[in-house]
Design goal:
328 residues, alpha/beta, Arc Repressor Mutant, subunit A, D-Maltodextrin-Binding Protein, domain 2, eight-stranded mixed β-sheet, two-stranded antiparallel sheet, 22% strand, rod-shaped, WH_DNA-bd_sf, DNA-binding transcriptional regulator, LysR family, WH-like_DNA-bd_sf, LysR_subst-bd, transcription regulation
Amino acid sequence: MEYKALRLFVEIVRHGGFTEAAQACGVSQSAVSKAVKGLESECGFTLLERDAHHRRRLSQAGELVYRRALRMMLERQSLEEELDDLRGLRRGTLRLGLPRVGAGPLFAHSLATFRQRYPGIDVELTEHGSQRLLEGVASGEVEIAATIAQHTEGVTSMLVDSQPLVVLIRRDHPLARHASLHLRDLAHESFLLLSQDFALNQIVADALSRAQIIPRTTTRSTQADFLIDLVEAGMGVTLLPELVLDNHPLADVVAVPLDEHLEWGIHLVWREGAHLSPAAKAWIAIVRERAADESSPCAGTIRPERAADHGGRAVGTELSASPGEIRP
């Protein structure tokens, strides 16, 4: 049954007649009559019948159709109100993926701003390495994610921040006195690395391969902070972005710059061609604002980029009635 025909039928009951219903809906009386006849034909019942005084009243089938039509109209009204809430960011969910490295310094303040502006929006956080986050974006588990890997088929990316990698080494280690280090200087050191599903791990592994260094021993972890603790305990050296040191005391650990230019870049990524929700678009806008703030760790670095095939696009919103007498 067509919604328009059901609405006209409800208006007949509400206003008590065909003429009044036509005026209320801005249509001709013949259109109202045609709608009722169409409903009766589809139902196989007479919906309006005449009593002994020749007054039109709802039949038993008419009462049933009227009640159900009213319910449908109320459901539609509720749906429209909820959609308006989504557009106005008064409700909804932001499904966001964040990396386990650097998420705090880069995104904690942005998340606080998002919650302050849009208290009705729930934030579902997923924290993984870049590869798992990209898989989450592809599957729809997360709508937008922050990852290191950006040149991936099927995604659009936007650079948020770029940080140099530094060597973290115990303060009493002989190499700690150097102003800078070359990767070859670390050839005989034990390396402390992130797990293999972290894109940062691949950056380090590729750099060591280019320098023809095979790590003597390696210890892996999913937590950058734990790697720093292991350095402090004298278990080896690690390479991490300078930004992760912001919230970690370095009493017995020294950060030494690398002569090689190794960068850790964090990107917002989402499925290419996806229609982003208002919540996701609002999140991107807040990250942009944060980047423009000179006090932000990522000030001035955000810029849109294209996907791997260079085809990506960067993003940058009461019825009530009681059945009664129907006037002819």
